[in-house]
Design goal:
There is one protein chain. The chain is about 45% helix and about 15% strand. By secondary structure, the chain is an alpha/beta fold. It has three domains: about 45 residues, lambda repressor-like DNA-binding domains (434 Repressor (Amino-terminal Domain)), CATH 1.10.260.40; about 130 residues, Rossmann fold (3-Layer(aba) Sandwich), CATH 3.40.50.2300; about 130 residues, 3-Layer(aba) Sandwich (Rossmann fold), CATH 3.40.50.2300. The chain has a six-stranded parallel sheet, with helices on both faces. β3, α8 and β4 form a beta-alpha-beta unit. The longest helix has 17 residues. The radius of gyration is 25 Å and the shape is elongated. The N and C termini lie far apart (about 65 Å).
Amino acid sequence: MRRPTLEAVAARAGVSRATASRVVNGQTTVAPHIRDAVQRAIDELGYVPNSAARSLVTQRTDSVALVVSEPGTRVFSEDPLFSTAIRSASMELEAINKQVVLMLASSPKSHARVERYISGGHVDGVMLLSMHGADPLPSALSRLRVPVVSYGRPAVPVDIPFVDNDNVGGAEAGVRHLVEAGRRRIATIAGPQDMIAGQDRLTGYRNILRDSDRRSIVAVGDFTRESGAVAMRQLLGDDPGLDAVFVANDLMAVGALQSLRQAGRRVPDDVAVVGFDDIEAAKYTEPPLTTLRHPVTEQAAAMVRLLLNLFEGGPTDPIILPTELVVRESA
């Protein structure tokens, strides 16, 4: 069977080819009854627009790049942040007939590849996820004059709209919960210090300890479960008398719980534990994990809406979403 043409759609709808083209390309200068007639003809004939020809007319690709500054081993790992953010962004874009082009950028070579692809006009905009301090992409992409938004506040001084959650306030709430429970020697397993989330959550921890006349006890992980286990062993070696730990994400908290169990420490009797993110696994740790809910799905959806505002000239002020303390048995 021959592929239906735009001319056939126009003939079936009783309109000119130019009018049918305007409907297909989403222009609003067509009367509603004519638009309905063209849409019926499209449905009846099974017409599918030629994407290359359509792009020439509209100057749009209907594709958006989601650039993740991590290697594949991290993105496709047990950390649900990546899969949740990718799924949420994809669903938001799919609802308006746009698609996501997932690109990983964790090396100079991949940075150059991403920059070439985007400068080639293959996407209408870019969403950045999991940026690190030395990441050159935010500055490079802003010079290309392509619409760019960020999941999280950029770690470099660049004028890019962003959506974040209240990392400082969330950490403060978690550590305040430990202070109010009477814990005296409160340690933290901080996240990577080249990432804004890692920096801000450490800041929140230090704010509360400073105000409550307690000293900081810090180990640093990389947001993986193994790093949490290693950091917890380090903390126990440095201060065997610690009675609480605030962990900058739930995956590291899972590792910390494992190390505490292996060291014979009871949770929460000997050491209380608070995490951050409220991943699904937090409900099923032993004991269930007290944590801060990080609204990943809502944050990714808000990032898409912010990018659409950029397309349409709408407001692009930073968006900060609240976190919520979820109290379970670990603290």
